[in-house]
């Protein structure tokens, strides 16, 4: 794993050195950093979002993680989605440094979505393992998600695949995730 600068170095996280930056291949929204494994369907996406407040999510990190997972299912036009576990940090919020905003998280959600890609019929939909981590910067009205996607069942062939590699990539990226420059987050109070 290699520490990679995200958003011009405002955030860093460790990723496999072979991962390709999707912005070298296609247009990626400014709010996202997208990386692709060169030899598989594994992808990792970091996204800076407005802090969600829907359905009690403003004060509940589990609800916020579930909201982001549901939003991802909607964006993926998922045929179904299920959450298998949510882990909320038990430690108190940690200050990120003198004069810096508090960073909450990560809250980790693991689940699956059934997604029909590339105009395949629903009968050939893939089952995709979704691992999502959520950090929150309340003073800047920002949520940051890190998501690893990995097809564990390929619909067309029915091939079943383990997700050990996806878990390893996700766990290391989450463990090493660090905000270096809170200026990345425009909203809220500048503490």
TrEMBL record:
InterPro entries listed in its UniProt record: Mog1, Mog1/PsbP_a/b/a-sand
Keyword list, A-Z: Protein transport, Transport
GO cellular component entries: nucleus
GO biological-process terms attached to the record: protein import into nucleus
GO MF annotation, one: small GTPase binding
Domain of life: Eukaryota
Signal sequence residues: none
Similarity comment: Belongs to the MOG1 family.
Protein name in UniProt: Mog1p/PsbP-like protein
Organism phylogeny: Eukaryota, Fungi, Dikarya, Basidiomycota, Pucciniomycotina
């Amino acid at each position: 794993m290699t520490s990679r600068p995200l958003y011009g170095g405002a955030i860093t996280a460790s990723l496999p050195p072979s991962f390709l930056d999707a912005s070298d291949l296609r247009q990626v929204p400014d709010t996202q950093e997208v990386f692709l494994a060169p030899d598989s369907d594994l992808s990792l996406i970091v996204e800076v979002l407005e802090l969600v407040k829907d359905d009690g999510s403003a004060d509940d990190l589990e609800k916020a993680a579930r909201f982001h997972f549901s939003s991802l299912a909607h964006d993926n036009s998922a045929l179904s989605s299920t959450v298998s576990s949510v882990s909320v940090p038990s430690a108190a919020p940690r200050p990120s440094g003198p004069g810096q905003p508090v960073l909450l998280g990560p809250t980790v959600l693991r689940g699956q979505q059934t997604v029909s890609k590339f105009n395949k019929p629903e009968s050939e939909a893939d089952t995709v393992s979704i691992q999502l981590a959520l950090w929150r910067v309340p003073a800047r009205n920002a949520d940051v998600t890190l998501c690893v996607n990995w097809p564990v069942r390929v619909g067309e062939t029915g091939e079943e695949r383990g997700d050990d590699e996806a878990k390893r990539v996700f766990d290391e990226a989450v463990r090493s995730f660090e905000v270096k420059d809170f200026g990345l987050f425009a909203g809220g109070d500048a503490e």
